Amino acid sequence: MALDNKDDTDFVKFWNTVLEPKFTKYRHILQGGLSRHSAAVIPNLPLGEGMSVLDVGCGWGDMSLQVAEIVGSNGRVVGIDCVDAFLEEGRKDAAEKGLRNVTFARGDAEVALPENEFDYVVARFGTMFFTNPVAALRRMRLALKPGGQMTHIVWRRREDNPAWQKAKDITLRHLPAPGADADSCGPGPFSMGNQETTGLMMKSAGYEDVTFTRVDEKILVGRNPEECIAFALAIGPGGEVFREAGEEMAEAKRPEIESEMHGYFESQEVDDDGIWAPTSSWVISARNPG
Ligand SMILES: C[S@@+](CC[C@H](N)C(=O)[O-])C[C@H]1O[C@@H](n2cnc3c(N)ncnc32)[C@H](O)[C@@H]1O
Predict the structure, then answer these.
(1) Residue at 235 is within a domain
(2) Which candidate, 122, 129, 178, 257, has a CA 20 to 30 Å from the CA of 245?
(3) pTM to 2 decimals?
(4) Which residues line ligand 1 (CB under 6 A)?
(5) Which of 224, 231, 215 is nearest to 166 (CA)?
């Protein structure tokens, strides 16, 4: 499969340079939390022995590996992501597990995907970042054979995911809002949270039989308040405000921001593993009519 990576968009460059080190640093929090939203979903999808599956925006690929075990040695899984470092981790983990039916490829789903090749397309928390979601969702549909199915998991609205929103609200009390031309990871984590508009996007992209299932999960947001704060100021809506304020201004305000966040995270559920926050996602499934 030839997926061009010579002319990366600014968005892909941003993921590879600014976001990748932060995501890698907090992989234990991110992968642990995101996988709680797919753990119960994947075994119930109509995936079977021998199927070919594409995982779009696969990140470190743990879900690709889970699917590879389901489709078995007669099936195959391709994980596509625009960040080289994530794919390397996926390849290492696949080799460690002895899984030969999964490959990882560098690609930008907004530019190109294989066509008419897969029985199923999955994506976990990757599609909300598309700058042109209908076009990219259509490309995912065209990656399917006629009658093939897709399932993607996205965050529900920001008010259903209070920890991310709270981190942003606190940061914005101390720092200015990012300008319209700020570097960002795309439309943002909650861009598919509205069921009605996302349903329309799916229909515009040509899907049929679109269903939404709500999943509520508590996820670990840090092993202690300090890690929760560092994570919230590195990644997600609060992290974006902090980064875009510029280092000098952000660092000057850090003590006040940290002290306010400390209070918030300490008020969340705590156990021996760390601090847990409620989160909510949509599992959206649909069919390519062909
Ligand atoms: C929040 S992470 C989720 C990663 C993984 N699916 C998981 O659940 O652990 C979003 C992923 O989407 C990838 N991504 C974003 N836009 C993309 C695009 N246009 N093409 C390919 N990958 C993309 C990012 O590199 C990142 O790995």
Answers:
(1) no
(2) 129
(3) 0.93
(4) 15, 31, 34, 57-60, 80-83, 86, 107-110, 124-126, 129
(5) 231
